[in-house]
Amino acid sequence: ICFVVVPGMIATEQVDDFIRHYGQGQAMDEIPIKEFGRPRDVANVVAFLASGLARYSTGATIDVGGASYMR
Predict the structure, then answer these.
(1) Cβ-based neighbours of 15, under 8 Å, separated by 6 or more
(2) Of 22, 23, 59, 67, which cross-links 32 as Cys (Cβ 3.0–4.6 Å)?
């Protein structure tokens, strides 16, 4: 079983650097739900995938980005 978890704009020091350089408006323009994710949002997805509840899924890419990227 293999998954790829792709975090979007998560409220971390890296996002703080992005905001200082480009401004918060540009960052929010990329996120349809208009809020940054939290590290816990990524952790919850990883915990779910590790729980075994996604037993029949494999080879998937899971975006955790507030709908900033949809397939």
Answers:
(1) 9, 27, 36
(2) 67
Report pLDDT for 65: 92
pLDDT for 14-48, tens place per residue? 888 888 999 888 888 889 999 999 999 999 999 99
- pTM metric for this prediction: 0.85
Pairing state of beta strands 3-7 and 60-64? parallel
Report the distance separating Cα 56 and Cα 38, nearest Å.
27
Residue 54 DSSP one-character state: T
> What is the C-alpha separation between 61 and 13, in angstroms, rounded?
24
Q: What is the DSSP letter of 10?
A: B
User: Could you tell me the two tokens for 38?
Assistant: 């939290």
